[in-house]
Amino acid sequence: MESHQLWAVNRRGQALLRLGRVEGKFQRARELKPWQGQGPVQVGEWPFLGPSVASGEVCCRHQQQRRGSSKRSGPRDDQPFSGLLRPENVSREELVDVLRAAVVDQKGPLVTLNKPLGLPVTGKPGELTLLSVLPELSQSLGLGERELQVVRASGKETSGLVLLSSCPQTASHLQKFFTHSQRARRPTVTYCAVTDGIPATSEGKIQAALKLEHIDGVNLVVPVKSPSRKDILEGVKRTLSYFRVVAMGSGCALVQLQPLTAFPSQLQAHMALQLCPLLGDHMYSARVATVLGQRFLLPAESTRPQRQVLDEALLRRLHLTPSQAAQLPLHLHLHCLYLPGARPRDPPIKLLAPLPSYFSRTLHCLGLHYQ
């Protein structure tokens, strides 16, 4: 095997995945600039996923029709937040069934699923998490002793794509691809979000130095102005995200977000700094205050988390009572994930996950259309 190539080999010894490599550094298949690759992607010879996933839109429509969501003509007010998952209310067997039904595609060692909001990836011993049921999920999907492991996943308070692999070598290669892309500031994920408020510009980048602080028993992300070298050594991180407004109406916006760095709650903190907190953000929305119609930021260190407060007009548009709004889920969905093409010069492959039902309901109520 040549030194400039990496291969993932399945149990039959067939070469399934090839990632370009030059002198120990992963070679990009194609430079993915912000928002590049949002259009149709040519389907390459990707043996794990196949055309149904590489084209993205096919598996998205398939899953929506299977759930019956495409036939709904309007929002269901009796169940405004359907599609949420509360691990404390389900058994291990029920969770495995939920995850099996959430599988978007399975080809070779790769499994892609659309994780519901509320399910943590990791947790304390004894807690019901994605990792804790991977052995049962692997058996349920007919993988035998080839146990799945997480390659990429959205967090507990975020819905969306999860990429799993039953081949450790494949998982390692893909994780290196994501790590190298992050270091090169090339986006590999796109989130969909709904914001309370409309960004001042239709697209742009958000740069902020962030740190984690333990305040009143809660770990909170706090922005740091002009961090010193000592601050960086003590855990302050310079973060960067791109945003683009897709649609706007009723004082809200549908936004695409691409984080180019990784930090806890980065996207929530970034949009709060833009005076447009995410809908359902009960951690950082309190930092944005309004006086005489003008928004401004409150000091992050002295502003404690509280339930997001929405104005009466927005509540009417969403068909929610104040008590329901206090339970509003975070509208942040890992919608798109980019994988390397089968060959070094191939364009990246785009995986898509359908929006959750409560997210689609919100878009319908606000008159926001996502294409």
TrEMBL record:
Example GO BP: pseudouridine synthesis
One Pfam annotation reads PseudoU_synth_2
- In which domain of life is the source organism classified? Eukaryota
Which residue intervals define the domain Pseudouridine synthase RsuA/RluA-like in the entry? 110-272
Q: Where is this region: Disordered?
A: 62-86
A single MF term (Gene Ontology): pseudouridine synthase activity
What is the protein name given in its UniProt record?
Mitochondrial mRNA pseudouridine synthase RPUSD3 isoform X1
Native organism is: Tursiops truncatus (Atlantic bottle-nosed dolphin)
Q: Which gene encodes it?
A: RPUSD3
